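fwd from M.: "can u put these together and see what the complex looks like"

so here's what she sent:
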Amino acid sequence: MRYDYVGVLVFLVLAVGFVFIGMLAQRIVSGFLHTNRPNAAKLSPYECGEEPVGGTFIRFNIRFYVMALVFIVFDVEVVLLFPWARVYQELYAFYRTALFWDMLVFVGILALGLAYIWGKGDLEWVKTFEKHLSPAEKVARPHTKKEAA
Amino acid sequence: MMAALGISLRDPAAWVFLAFAAMTVASALLVAVSRNIIYSAYSLLLTFFGVAGLYAFLDADFLAAAQLLVYVGGILVLILFGVMLTHKIRDINLSNETTNPIVGAVIAGLLFLVLAYVSMRTDWQVVDRGPATPTTQEIGRAFVGKYLLPFEASSILLLGALIGAAYLSRHERKKEA
Amino acid sequence: MQLIQFAHGLLPFLAKWPDWVVYLAVVFLFAFAILNTLVAPLTGISTYIERRLAGRAQYRWGPNRVGIRSLLAAMPITRPISKLADVQPFKFIGSKIPGGLLQFAADGLKLFTKEDIIPAQADKMLFRLSPYVVMAGSFAAFAVFPVSFWCSAINLNIGIFYVLGMSSVVVPGILMAGWGSANKWALFGGMRSASQIVSYEIPVAIALMTVVMLAGTMNMNEIVATQRSGYGIEKAGFLGWYLFRYGGLMIVPFVIYFIGGCAEVNRTPFDLPEGESELVSGYHTEYSGFRWSFFFMAEYSNMFAVGAIATTMFLGGPLPPYPVQFTESLPMLIRFGEGFFWFFAKSYFFVLVMIHMRWTLPRYRIDQLMQLCWKVLMPIALVWFVLMCGIKMARMEMAAPAEAPVVAEVHK
């Protein structure tokens, strides 16, 4: 088994080597063919032929960050549940139904969390704050979810 | 020194260990000293990878994959999102005003000496590890047996983290709105 | 270990070599074989098939010119041979072969000789590094796929968990490409892609965990072995596959896995990260030539990997749909070929499904995408996981009732 992770390393090295050798060969060939002829227009950011307006690094929707946070919580849940799933069959004869309830409590508490953020609207990608809108705006903006970033 | 630490350079495994350790330490150093925050963040990729490699080397296979899944796939992405969401982060050159290189170097050097002394003096028990055993079952057994309560408590911890994250993000958006 | 013994059996003189040298050599050859069959050439062939199917979907031809005849006609020496195509038996055969078969080779050559542009404002280091990370992440998953009976390059105990871990390495690589390009579209595409991949990882992982729970193992070879029998039949053929076990209840995790898998490889209807009408081509907008082709290769090999995981976990991997005893007595090499054939056919079937989906379905909007993940797939996956645990519990309860004193073998 100890060898096996060296095998993983072999795979990683092969993938990296594949890209490296490919790029090296490409560079040698392009040296022969003189294909590399950069100019200012080529090297500018590609925006379908338009002149780029403004900087690249615009502000993003904060939702990306929130989703990543929520993801980590459930990711850890999955990581903790995997060993349980692995031994469920094997240890069932020993612990009987208690094993099932262990899992149900664990999953149930996190399902509660999911229900909480769902109910509070944290899973909405675009949230319109109804109470911050004036009555006129409420009429002008019906319950449509706007296209988000 | 290698011999004192029980590492034999004849053993190919020692080279793998040294490579991973060197990678981890070097990339961690890069995280600390890089002036460009995005390079710091990406150096963490190598650090996490090196740590995962060390776990795998120590026969902790489940932990190694969990390290990749949680740290590379989760924490690192979160850090990168945090960096990318920050306004005009690309133009900023990080510099720490409060660094005092001389004092820092002296303290770090002393700490290194202490650690080196301790590690050299300790009588390391070099045992033959024997054949590697799969760890996932052991972890699973511990989760449903000895460490059942921590296992269940961790779900409450995660619940707290989830609610906290949601609350903070709501707070953030209300300020924006 | 099996691999080492196999190598020793094949070439006896290897016994004199240190084990680790033999092991490294065998794994390297295996990895090299996978790279040169399932990753690089398969990408090319998949692009050809995809373009032909796109042609059919849009009532046009697709690539139909560049073939063996035009290759022969291109070189002065072989030009006379190309004339043979008008002579009768060859003309008939030629009319039956679809055209454009060598289009992918021509495209590969084109990409190889194209100019390699790195935008002036790009972060050159991250721009260059990104293909390495993406390729390494997507290729490493191939290490544990059982390409035939008990035959994977590495027989890891944590098989499927390792695949999940390795596929998450791709995400920083994609963000690297997006950020390094210094292009609005690339950055947008990278962000979207990353958040999409991480979000869909949860339902996918829960769906796969359901199978792990039923199989009681994470080793992919062992998961395949548990699918040999089912419904009380030893060697049950396709009835043993998890998709058809438990009265068809496992179809739900399977569908969740497949939807999530499509989202993780950014294929339509989840291809917002590279929606060409809004983001040009997403995180690899600024990439060109050969450097770009690595992203392309990673995308197609990821598609195949999604199919391979679905095959291994739900469709019995290399197991044939007929009961195995029909072919059990055949020589080893033929059995290897049989296993590989079924593994490949089933996995590639999913690639074809994904290609068809791309040319049939419209694209999701990002809020719909997130809604589908967190409000539909995620609750269903969790509920189904609990349900299957309950069913498994009932099964085990029936098999060994609580009254009977069972001496548990905790320490195996």
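replying to her w this: Chain B has a mean pLDDT of 80.
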